[in-house]
């Protein structure tokens, strides 16, 4: 990890319009949790549904999309990435630094809000808050790797990523049996399911399979982004 690249990336992410989205989305979730708590509509089933539908299935992938594409996509679009590529910094170090920044942003703006939402609504009844927090934490790493890789591959990463999130992860990932097994959301939900006794939390993917896929896809995303950066530098030289 390169501290200089990390600092520049953090400054760029938190100083752009993306910062408003990073703050706005979790704020909506927290307001919803507070409203349900005030109206005394926060039983275990409701809390589990809010944490799953709005936290794990919606907030997490959207925040990861904003963070993952934002840490490197704009630099590729305006050509600034070539300045970094001319430095004697290994491509994997650049990718891992960008990925680490994206993951820290996911922790700050998705994992922590989910933790606070769970505390507001249910405390830690049936370990539901800690389970969803860990589920979002592990799912966030995989989503970040996917979207960083997508940003390196395509200039339309945001549009493609948004389509993927809305159609595959949110729509098909919740309702289509076949798609559930290939959904990051369901893999993260499997981890959550293993950590809580709450009956509403159910995953269709076995835990060992889910953990293996989370690790595999995260590693593949980081590796593919590194290889693609090498091709960018070669193309620039030619």
Write structural notes for this entry.
This protein has helices at residues 3-14, 18-38, 44-70, 73-77, 81-85, 91-122, 128-153, 157-175, 177-180, 184-195, 207-237. By secondary structure, it is mostly helical. It has one domain (3-237). Helix 1 packs across helix 6 (91-122). The radius of gyration is 18 Å and the shape is globular. 45% of the residues are buried.
Shape: globular
Q: Secondary-structure element order, as H and E?
A: HHHHHHHHHHH
What integer value in Å does the Rg equal? 18 Å
Average residue-wise pLDDT: 89
Which runs of at least 5 residues are low in confidence (pLDDT < 50)? 234-238
Category by helix and strand content: mainly alpha
Most strands sheet: none
- Bin the helical content: over 70%
Distance between the termini: 28 Å
Number of discrete domains: 1
What fraction of residues sit in β-strands?
A: under 5%
Question: What is the number of E strands?
Answer: 0
Number of helices: 11
